[in-house]
Design goal:
The complex is a heterodimer of chains A (about 425) and B (about 120).
Chain A: H1 4-26, H2 29-50, H3 56-72, H4 76-88, H5 109-119, H6 126-137, H7 142-148, H8 153-169, H9 180-202, H10 214-228, H11 236-250, H12 276-292, H13 297-310, H14 319-332, H15 336-350, H16 352-362, H17 372-384, H18 388-401, H19 405-417
Chain B: E1 2-9, H1 11-15, H2 19-38, E2 42-47, E3 55-58, E4 65-68, E5 77-85, H3 89-98, E6 108-113
Antiparallel strand pairs in B: 1-5, 1-6, 2-5, 3-4
Classes of the chains: A mainly alpha (about 425), B alpha+beta (about 120).
């Protein structure tokens, strides 16, 4: 007997390596990916009862490889029969993998990165990149991914197969991009991992056993990217910055919502319950990274999170430093959402009027005018300034405009308290 | 993000359609559904009965009042919907433009966001 949890972890680690071996050998990412998914499902059924084979990666390569040849031999009835046999037979009865079937333990590392590049191919929409990455690199089942994103399994299955088809049509090859393209593509990979984390982090609906922990998955994959990138890679700093940002954000997870799902803003969170181990790792990582790497937006966001993490309260937070960091962030990666945060920091340092003045400039920006967050921040600053009536109106407008239920409840409560 | 593409129909407009136009709307919906199924964006769709068949249960503060007919008498009403999960609001609008109703004068598709259970992001 093996623990199902341990088996699942092992399978998820092996998934990209096994897939890479098959794609290297046979090409056809599309078919190989399906075959690996089936082999993973077979292992997930079999290993917990019968034990993990001595060569788990070899076992998966063999079973997936067999699925592939079966498929190519066509004749569906026979295909089904053979799969059933392969799945039902204990692993030790399967022919031992030949040395050629062994995933090359030394050479597999770059392949996981190559797979990530492929799954985050620019021809795909962000939701497709996310879904394909979670399945092909993360080793999650379609069912798990579908439930994480609250869509039917058929929808997710279709999204994944369309994504693979698009990659094929785009003529993508199983090779690491080089030159300037590499940096661009790596930025997409990091953004996809950011999206995966955010999706998991913003989910406020309590612990659900059916839903996989997307934050943990994003952190795991970002660690992988860091491990695989050479230290002198120009993007290594941002990969480290993203990991630090995830760790520092995740440290606040237990306090971000109440038991009944109501949102708790940073200022009101019980900081004694922040995860100090995560804070320690994230802070150490971002300090070390920023000392050497070329500066980037993820690093700056992580640095800001680290300043919040070291403070015992909002009052004792080093807002001057945060303001400086937002200033740099707004300069190297201009974005109205960053300006909104800079307005909050400005209000803390120079008073609410200065923050509100920044928001007035922002109101002309089409990307954010009418966005609920602009009104939410405006409401917060008006409240700080003591203008209760205007603050209440702005909270009410923000509550009407948001499409997040917990956020709407939060904003409505704020408005009601100012009545 | 999920959106409801609400087909606002007007019976006077529908009645005035030729047989040919009706057929083209029908096959247009089939083609639309096929394409959003294949792209992995489709979650569900329903066509609704005429509001003339509705019963409205109205709160009165005490025992609810039950009356035949729609909540509001209107020239236009919700004739059906598609529920989709897409990358952005822009994509939802793009899909709405592909619905055959969008080519008929007097019909409309309302693109409305679905509320979700998510809190502050990082």
């Amino acid at each position: 007997m093996a623990e199902p949890g341990t088996v699942e972890d092992l399978l998820r680690t092996l998934a990209p390596r096994v897939l890479a071996v098959l794609v290297r050998r046979h090409g056809q990412f599309d078919a190989c990916e399906d075959a690996v998914q089936e082999a993973l499902l077979a292992a997930a059924l079999q290993w917990p009862d019968e034990g993990v084979p001595a060569e788990p990666a070899g076992w998966l390569v063999t079973v997936a490889g067999r699925r592939l040849t079966d498929q190519w031999r066509s004749e569906s009835a026979r295909r089904r029969r053979e799969t059933a046999v392969a799945v039902a037979r204990p692993y030790h009865e399967l022919i031992a993998p030949s040395p050629a079937d062994e995933p090359d333990s030394g050479g597999d590392t770059d392949d996981t990165l190559t797979l990530l590049f492929l799954c985050c191919h620019p021809s795909l929409s962000a939701p497709s990149q996310v879904a394909l990455t979670l399945r092909a690199v993360g080793g999650l089942t379609t069912e798990q991914i579908a439930s994480a994103f609250l869509v039917p399994e058929t929808t997710m299955g279709q999204r994944i197969s369309r994504a693979k088809q698009k990659i094929k049509e785009a003529g993508a090859t199983f090779a690491l991009p080089a030159g300037p393209e590499r940096a661009e593509r790596l930025a997409v990979v990091l953004h996809v991992l950011y999206l995966v984390f955010n999706e998991g982090y913003t989910a406020t609906s309590g612990p659900d056993l059916q839903r996989v922990e997307l934050t943990a998955e994003a952190i795991r994959l970002t660690r992988e990217v860091r491990r695989l990138l050479p230290d002198d890679d120009p993007a290594a700093g941002e990969a480290a910055g993203l990991l630090a940002l995830m760790l520092l954000t995740d440290s606040r997870r237990a306090t971000r919502a109440t038991a009944d799902g109501a949102l708790v803003p940073l200022a009101e969170q019980d900081r004694s319950r922040w995860d100090t181990a995560l804070i320690g790792e994230g802070t150490e990582l971002i300090e070390r990274t920023m000392a050497t790497a070329a500066l980037g937006p993820y690093q700056l966001q992580a640095a800001i999170a680290a300043v919040h993490a070291e403070a015992a309260s909002t009052e004792t937070t080093d807002w001057r430093q945060i303001l400086v960091l937002y200033g740099i962030l707004d300069r190297i990666a201009p974005n109205p959402m960053v300006t909104l945060n800079r307005a909050i920091a400005t209000a803390q340092v120079h008073g609410p009027a200065a923050g509100l003045a920044l928001l007035d400039d922002l109101g002309a920006d089409k990307r954010v005018a009418g966005h609920h967050r602009l009104d939410a921040v405006r409401a917060h600053l008006l409240e700080l300034a003591g203008d209760r009536a205007a603050a209440r109106d702005a909270y009410t407008r923000a509550a009407r405009a948001t499409v997040s239920l917990p956020e709407r409840r939060y904003l409505e409560t704020k408005a009601a308290r100012l009545r | 993000m999920k959106f409801l593409l609400i087909m606002q129909v007007n019976p006077a407009v529908l009645d005035a359609l030729t047989e040919e136009e009706r057929d083209s709307i029908g096959s247009g919906h089939e083609g639309f559904m096929k394409s959003i199924r294949e792209s992995g964006e489709f979650i569900g769709t329903q066509a609704l009965g005429d509001p003339g068949n509705s019963v409205t249960v109205r709160g009165t503060g005490g025992v609810p009042a039950v009356t035949d007919g729609p909540f509001l008498e209107a020239k236009e009403f919700m004739g059906g919907y598609y529920l989709v999960d897409v990358e952005s609001k822009e994509r939802a609008v793009e899909l709405a433009r592909q619905i055959p109703d969008a080519r008929i004068g007097g019909l409309a598709i309302e693109v409305r966001p679905i509320m979700f259970e998510a809190g502050f992001d990082m």
